[in-house]
């Protein structure tokens, strides 16, 4: 009472599987056509946001916004640039004194920037 499968699967009714894993018979062309017709929607790409993610937040943010409104944006950015450059020089001198290498120095500068964002200095 044993039944045998034919190589072409023509005698079997249509199903999602016919053939064997070893030989890969029957259904490969159909499978490739069905996979090719499936379309996957791409997720909407969010554009990277320029600026501070903590804009307007932080302990010093109100004071920073007040000073920026009083002195003007252009003059404020000049003052901010000078303050950041001065702070970077202090970090560099500290690293020279301690004997830290460039990688550690860059890490300290990045940490100072992150802390400034969190505290609201870059608001």
TrEMBL record:
Lineage top rank: taxon: Eukaryota
GO cellular component, one term: chloroplast
Protein name in the entry: Proton gradient regulation 5
GO MF term (any one): electron transfer activity
Transmembrane region(s): none
InterPro entries in the cross-refs: PGR5 (IPR037497)
Protein's organism: Zingiber officinale
Gene Ontology biological process terms from the UniProt entry: photosynthetic electron transport in photosystem I; response to high light intensity
């Amino acid at each position: 009472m044993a039944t045998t499968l034919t190589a072409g699967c023509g005698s079997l009714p249509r199903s999602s599987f016919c053939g064997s894993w070893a030989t890969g018979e029957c259904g490969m062309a159909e499978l490739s056509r069905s996979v090719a017709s499936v379309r996957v929607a791409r997720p909407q790409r969010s554009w990277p946001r320029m600026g501070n993610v903590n804009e307007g937040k932080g302990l010093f943010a109100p004071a920073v916004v007040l000073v920026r409104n009083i002195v003007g944006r252009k003059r404020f950015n000049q003052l901010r640039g000078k303050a950041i450059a001065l702070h970077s020089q202090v970090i560099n001198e500290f690293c020279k004194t301690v004997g830290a290498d460039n990688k550690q120095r860059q890490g300290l500068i990045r940490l100072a920037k992150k802390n400034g964002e969190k505290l609201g200095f870059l608001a």
